[in-house]
Write the structure tokens for this entry.
Amino acid sequence: MKGFLESLVQVTRTGLLPVIPDFKRISPKDGDLFGPRDPVQCAALMQAAGAPALSVVTEETQFGGSLELLEDIAGAVPLPVLRKDFIRSGEDLKETRECGASAVLLIAACLEPQKLTELYHQALELGLEPLVEAHTPQELGQARALGAKLVGINNRNILQLELDGGTVETTGALAHLKPQGSFLISESGILTPQDAAAAAVSGADAVLVGTAIWKAGDPVLYYRQLSRAVRR
């Protein structure tokens, strides 16, 4: 199986924008996103639709996730999987690896710089690809200091559980600050193919989309519309 970054880069070489489906059971803003649908079956559908990688939210209280969900999806679908959660310790990283994830989200807003650095290097030692998430210029500076290869810009404020009105304009304002040579993923607030195109024009190399896919009448069709939104 290809690595998380490798899979995304391969899509960019075709001239398309990689779209990472985000498996988030509950949105604090929009409520239950899956209803009776089985996320594992949905993961297989996303693979068939051409997804290069998947993202799974494991935070339980606000987002309805679990490590079991991560393990089930990673075990069922031969795609690299990113674990999204409020990672705070080396133990969190170890369980991430044990559950089959290829990559792990490290949120700069939730970690002191020294802790972020520590977890970044521990992730690499475990064979996990760390995705450093930023929402401000200062946080992108931390990613730059780490030499992060995978960088995310969260268009919304995770400290407000993404209930703020953030849009893809956040990527537009911050993308020029990404670390040189890094691969930039625009996250959250991407609701339409036009939003995905705007992220790409701003400098994003990929987009991560959850709510808009799962609220669509036909998630597979909508995923394909998103992934075909941009030809470079």
